[in-house]
Amino acid sequence: MLAFKQILAVAVVVIAVSGCGSGTSPAKGGTPGKLTFGSDVSSDIRITIHRSGASGFEQLGFANTAADGSFVLYNSLATEPLWLEPGDYVFTLESIGPPVQFPKAYVKPESTPLKVTWNSEMNSINLDMPPKLLEK
Fold first, then answer.
1. By three-state DSSP, how is residue 37 classified?
2. What are the chain's domains?
């Protein structure tokens, strides 16, 4: 009986140390930012980041806003953090929670006014939408 208890104790320690799952852990986010609507914030907004290229806009990654409007960027597959390099970026928006209809300009990279020129001295993105975001 003592040998069984010792084997059981060793098995519990091995499982605890190695972890139960065999999958990869989720990536930690990259470049942080905040999305505001005037003085308001909103959660459950998908922000997609694009860069202009020779053949149009390239989707680089995305973020989902938290309750305070904050977000961190991930690559398009959410497998790695997305850290911005100096350059020009545009951001599109879509609701992933309660339905919010954004003005059409904000959902296409060709027309979105949410643009950032990122430089090496910056450490976060501030995207500010007009307080009135619903289309009529």
1. strand
2. 28-129 (2.60.40.1120)
